[in-house]
Known about the structure:
Layout: E1 8-12, H1 17-28, E2 32-36, H2 40-53, E3 58-60, H3 70-80, E4 87-89, H4 105-133, E5 138-139, H5 143-169
Parallel strand pairs: 1-2, 1-4, 2-3, 4-5
Helix pairs in contact: 3-4
Amino acid sequence: xxxxxxxxxxxxxxxxxxxxxxxRNLADRGANLILTARSEDKLHQRAKELSERHxxxxxxxxxDLSQPDTPQRLWKQVQAASLSVDVLINNAGFGxxxxxxxxxxxxxxxxxxxxxxxxxxxxxxxxxEMLKKGTAALSMSHQRQRFNQFLTSLPTVRRKHxxxxxxxxxxxxxxxxx
Length: 178
């Protein structure tokens, strides 16, 4: 098992699930942690538990990465705390499963902001320093799977919308899908 002793790892979505598992595993391997998620109370509980169990530093910066300004704000907070990230684990994310119109437009905007824009933003902000130090390591645990699910769902979405379009033509309206 690879040691991360002395490395500082930023884990997004660290309050539960896979993000929490990443944090626990990395703490077991000696990594100092920067934890972020929306659930500030859970993050502080996790930080207390991990720093007491291991001789590591754990920093908490809560925020909702589905909000467009949060990646930049997180980066500024990390800089202001004089922390240096060696490994970035872009774990935060969510997906919707079901008929496309079952979810509102804002849900899809939040999903795109979190799963794509936050991932790109955080990578762009933290990668230059990691490259300078020669420590660049990135993990995008859910995003590839979610993107693949999105791509595989497109034919179904197109079929359903085309089917709707043919049904709507007789009623005087037309739906076009590119």
